Write a sequence for this structure.
C-alpha cells in the first residue's frame, strides 16, 4: 500500500470521527455518546503507523551491533557519515514527522542507522589514528554535539506541552546546527584514519 493511499484512508477515518463528535441538532443520551468515544478510540489505535522518512522505512534492515575489528569499524564509520549526510541533505523532509526521525538517524532511537553504537566503533579505532590526542579530542567533541542534537530533537517532541520556551521548529533548528558540527568532527575523525568520505 503506497503512502498516498494510506494517507487517504487515515484522512477519511479521521473525518468520520470528527463528524461523529460534532454537536448534533438533537440531544443524545450518554450511552450513544460513550459508544462514539469508544469507536473513535478504537479507530485511532487500529490505524497503522507511518514509517520514518528516507533511510528509515519498514523495508530497511536493522544495523547489527558492532562486533569489533578495524576493517569493520572503518566501514561502519563511512556508512555512519553517509547516514548523517543523508540526514542533513533531507533535513526538512525528515523532520516533518518530528524529532524522533532525527533521533533515528543519530542512532539513539532504534537500530536502523549506522550511527547506532558509533561511540564503540570510534573507541575501537583510536589506536589507528595518526594523532591519538587529536583523535580523542575530536571524538569527545563529536559525542558532545551528538548528545546535544539528540537532546534538542527529543525536546522538540514535547516543547508544546511543557513550560520550556520555544517551538518544535526552534529545537529542530538547534539540533540541525549540532548535527552540522558533529559532521565536521566526523570528517576530522575520518581524516585521522585516512578514510575517503
Amino acid at each position: 500500500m503506497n503512502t498516498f493511499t494510506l494517507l487517504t484512508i487515515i484522512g477519511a477515518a479521521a473525518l468520520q470521527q470528527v463528524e461523529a463528535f460534532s454537536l448534533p441538532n438533537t440531544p443524545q443520551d450518554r450511552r450513544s455518546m460513550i459508544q462514539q468515544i469508544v469507536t473513535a478510540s478504537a479507530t485511532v489505535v487500529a490505524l497503522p503507523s507511518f514509517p520514518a522518512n528516507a533511510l528509515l522505512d519498514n523495508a530497511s534492515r536493522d544495523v547489527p551491533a558492532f562486533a569489533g575489528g578495524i576493517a569493520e569499524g572503518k566501514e561502519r564509520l563511512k556508512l555512519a557519515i553517509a547516514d548523517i549526510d543523508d540526514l542533513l541533505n533531507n533535513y526538512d523532509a525528515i523532520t516533518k514527522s518530528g524529532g524522533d526521525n532525527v533521533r533515528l538517524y543519530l542512532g539513539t532511537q532504534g537500530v536502523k542507522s549506522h550511527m547506532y553504537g558509533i561511540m564503540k566503533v570510534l573507541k575501537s579505532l583510536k589506536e589507528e589514528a595518526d594523532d591519538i590526542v587529536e583523535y580523542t579530542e575530536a571524538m569527545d567533541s563529536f559525542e558532545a554535539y551528538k548528545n546535544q542534537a539528540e537532546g534538542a530533537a527529543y525536546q522538540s517532541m514535547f516543547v508544546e506541552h511543557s513550560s520550556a520556551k520555544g517551538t518544535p521548529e526552534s529545537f529542530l533548528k538547534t539540533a540541525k546546527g549540532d548535527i552540522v558540527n558533529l559532521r565536521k568532527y566526523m570528517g576530522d575523525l575520518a581524516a585521522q584514519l585516512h578514510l575517503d568520505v
Observations:
- The first helix runs from residue 3 to 21.
- The chain has two domains: 3-46, 70-192.
- Confidence is low (pLDDT under 50) at residues 42-54.
- The chain has eight helices and no strands.
